[in-house]
Amino acid sequence: MCRHLAYLGPDEPLGRLLVDPPHGLYRQSWAPRRQRHGTVNADGFGVGWYAAGDPAPARYRRTGPIWADPSFADLARVVRTGALLAAVRDATLPGADGEAAAAPFAAGRWLFSHNGAVAGWPQSAAPLVPGLPPVDLLSMEARTDSAFVWALVLHRLRADDDAGRALAETVREVAEAAPASRLNLLLTDGETIAATTWGDTLWYLAEPGRGTVVASEPYDDDPRWQEVPDRTLLAADRTGVRLTALKDQAPAPKEPCT
């Protein structure tokens, strides 16, 4: 499993969102409070962020634990952004893919992370392979279940599915092929966030005047954090959050950031 977080709002140092909170993603790498599978997220980490005037995000990824990288501490202190996606990783299986296996994965303006595991990987994914063009398989950044799920999502995005549909249909497709999979997906283009809950926790904080945070678990004890029910599609922007049950696609009212 993993822990991940996405943010949209006013420019903030990376550290204010990832390192400074008492239970931030930094601490979740060794002491998550709500993680249901696995205990330590020390198999790599990454952060992707957007700079004004450039639609393509920058990324910083490493193979080791986030706490063992002093360069990240410097970067997090001075780099500011109004949109980011970050993750700490607990590998499904051992592998030699290094930082290429660490989220966020990226293509164009998109950043993506997978918190979970494809059950029975890699054998269970075989029925899904014919649905991908060969070039998509050959372009996978890593030989992991998360990279494969990203390839499925990206194929739908390139076919002009919107972010929510791309995630929802990918979750259904993978869950049908591998029913015991855990598929909490997180996707942003720097202007919107889409996410799914399928087997693990997800929370959001719609903070008045500050935008929206979507995360595997709260990074502090602010009572305004809201838990997302399992089997749900979340869509968010800087003004609010919308929840849709994946089982019936019936939208819930949007909660404004006011």
From TrEMBL:
Superkingdom: Bacteria
Q: Where in this chain does the record put each Glutamine amidotransferase type-2 domain?
A: 2-258
Q: What Gene3D superfamilies does the record tag this protein with?
A: Glutamine Phosphoribosylpyrophosphate, subunit 1, domain 1 (3.60.20.10)
In which pathway does this enzyme or protein participate? Answer: Amino-acid biosynthesis; ergothioneine biosynthesis
Please state the Enzyme Commission number of this protein: 3.5.1.118
User: Its Gene Ontology molecular function terms?
Assistant: hydrolase activity, acting on carbon-nitrogen (but not peptide) bonds, in linear amides
Q: Which reactions fall under this protein's catalytic activity?
A: gamma-L-glutamyl-hercynylcysteine S-oxide + H2O = S-(hercyn-2-yl)-L-cysteine S-oxide + L-glutamate
Biological process according to GO = ergothioneine biosynthetic process
Keyword Hydrolase part of the UniProt annotation: yes
The alphabetized UniProt keywords are: Glutamine amidotransferase, Hydrolase
What's this chain's function?
A: Catalyzes the hydrolysis of the gamma-glutamyl amide bond of hercynyl-gamma-L-glutamyl-L-cysteine sulfoxide to produce hercynylcysteine sulfoxide, a step in the biosynthesis pathway of ergothioneine.
- Protein name, UniProt field: Gamma-glutamyl-hercynylcysteine sulfoxide hydrolase
- Lineage, highest ranks first: Bacteria, Bacillati, Actinomycetota, Actinomycetes, Kitasatosporales
